[in-house]
Amino acid sequence: MHVRVSGFKHLLVPALAAACLADRPWLIDNVPDIADTRVLTALLDAAGAAVTHDRRQGTVRVSAAGLGRHRIPGELSGQVHGSVYLLPALLAATGQVVSGRHGGCRIGSGGSGERPLAHVAAVMERFGARCEVTEGAFSATAPASGLRGAVIDLADFAEREPVTGTLTGPHYSGATKTALLLGAVARGTTVLRDPYPKADVLELARALGTAGVPLRTGPDEIVVEGQGGPIGGTELSLPSDLMEVVTMIALSVCLDTESQLRLDRPETVRASLAPELACLEAMGVPLAWEGDTLRTGRVERLAAVDVVAASHLVYSDALALLVPMLLRASGPSVVTDLVWGSRFGYAEGLRALGADLTVSGSRMTVRPSVLSPAAGDLRAGDLRAVMALVIGALTAGGRHVVHGVGHLARGYDNLPDKLRLFGADVQE
Length: 428
Hints:
By secondary structure, the protein is an alpha+beta fold. The chain has helices at residues 9-19, 35-46, 74-77, 86-94, 118-126, 172-185, 199-210, 242-254, 266-272, 274-283, 316-326, 347-352, 383-396, 405-411, 415-421; strands at 2-4, 26-29, 50-54, 59-63, 96-99, 130-134, 137-141, 151-153, 159-160, 167-168, 187-193, 215-217, 221-227, 234-237, 259-262, 287-290, 293-296, 306-309, 333-337, 356-360, 363-367, 378-379, 402-403. The longest helix has 14 residues, at 172-185.
């Protein structure tokens, strides 16, 4: 079975924000046709940018020359979390920004799972902005003299995890991306110490460099020489989406089938998924790289493993995709989330399918289980949790109604057809 994996959502989102900082067009290729793409391009259009989204060709072209409106429409921002990265972009481009709520997966610390924005405001203030954050509202104004470069230790927006002593936490990624975007157009040198280390930041920095931003990226810091004005244009081809790769591997393992994943920029995918690939190897999942193709073979026996999600380790998003596989392991496994804490919104649904799961704080024990059809509908409240339930339901067999598929539309391009390749009968 052959599956073409779509483009990397978590790079697309800040790249669209970066395009707002340019005085020449950005052309982004291998763009996934997902809800985030459609909402974010609509937000750029509402801000005055000229945006062309060719869904057939998988490209987005952004010309920000006409961008001049600083208010982010709440009816759009409330649909996706990626709109958060328009806050620094519009601040830098227009001198101010105002927004209401931002949507996305409800995995944060707010009363209804909202993800906070205080860290975004704190980073902006390091560059000289004045910010106000209240429940459901955000505003920021740049100084009349413009944003100035800053020295920022991203450890201020993270915490040390106990396994390796490296930084992690729910604010770490967003703070780094916000600082990188602002540093690109601020006046003077910006030094980002201990930046978030994963591909979405490293690839964003690379894209900014191709747009003419002088910067140096090292293992412990990123140095940006801001010119106090707009950046240039560039062409960016997105690598394949990392979590879609893990998803397709999970489907292959759980449904006991072989698959061949066609990847864009496979060397970037392989390097970026190093922790996940090491975990899959320890589990005994047979993977083979052949040019731009990643093959998954049939599994004879899966080993139990303990997996820790942290900013320098496995992605938090990946845990939900690993758990259905670990239900087939030869013994109990433990998964720990040191990014978002107790992000196990799929546990109840998998239990309804027969999974033996025990949650204790940020840890969940996964015991070998045989899944069977559930008596009722399955529900989850975030993207990867819903995908975990879909994988579990397909593994169990029978007919299931899975709620929350609006989340899937934000993260997977053409998912129903890809599930049908695995033999699923999908009714939308």
